[in-house]
Amino acid sequence: MPNLAIVRRLEAVGFRAWPAASIQYDGSWQLRLTAGHPSKRLNSVNPLDPSDHGDIEARVERAARRFDAYDRPLVFRQSPLAPAPLESYLDAHGWHRFDETIVMIGIIDQLDIDGGMDHLPVRDIGRYVDASITVHGRDQSLKAGLTEVLSSIRPPNGLFVIEDEANGPLATALCVHDNDLAGLFELATRMDSRRSGHGNEVVRAALRWARHRGADTAWLQVESVNEAAVSLYRGLGFGEVYRYAYRQKPGS
């Protein structure tokens, strides 16, 4: 059983690091909606108290109406903070589970992050957004939404790009420094440049930057099916803290 105090803290810093445009509450269920970006973390219901499970059916219906207003499918993000009766309700109604994600943590001084080239964060959000879209292979229509999300991040953050003159951007990462914690987001290596050490290089550079700023603990989220990334992070010294997954009703 995960330590719920640690889960609550990482969930809170994760929300600050990847801010939704609209945040509403139904009890302790946090409804996050963002018209400009389709990320599930920005468009999901996040239950935050295992004991808050009253009137589930009516609350799910209310959430559905709010998501309809944003033209977003209703998605629940189920972490260890989600109440068991809600999980049972979703199971009984056939909601499928997808995109299981591992949350990992590491003490920076114990991680293997020294060595390799130093990279300073880029200052131009537009340059980073263009690089990120290229590396992830995303559609250019996401540019405005991603720019808005990055511009809304309040804790200090570093935007990292690994690139060369011949091939352009090869890997990107966002590192958000929140008190003693450094969160890594948007980690990616371009498809045709994988297994060349660029992912390792960008992670190390970002965490050295965070260490220099005073962070002592690093954390990240990675989909469990991404075996190469999970192996990379374990090799650096990260360990699993908890998992979450998304739930969506049939036919959505």
Automatic annotation (TrEMBL):
Please give the InterPro entries that the UniProt record associates with this protein.
Acyl_CoA_acyltransferase, Bact_Acetyltransf, GNAT_dom, Rv0428c-like_C
Supply the name of the protein. Answer: Acetyltransferase
Q: Which UniProt keywords apply?
A: Acyltransferase, Transferase
Question: What Pfam families would the database entry show?
Answer: Rv0428c_C
* Signal peptide (from-to): none
Q: Which SUPFAM superfamilies match?
A: Acyl-CoA N-acyltransferases (Nat)
Q: Which CDD domains match?
A: NAT_SF (cd04301)
Q: Does the keyword Transferase apply?
A: yes
Q: Which residues form the N-acetyltransferase domain?
A: 120-252
| GO molecular function terms listed in the Swiss-Prot or TrEMBL record | acyltransferase activity, transferring groups other than amino-acyl groups
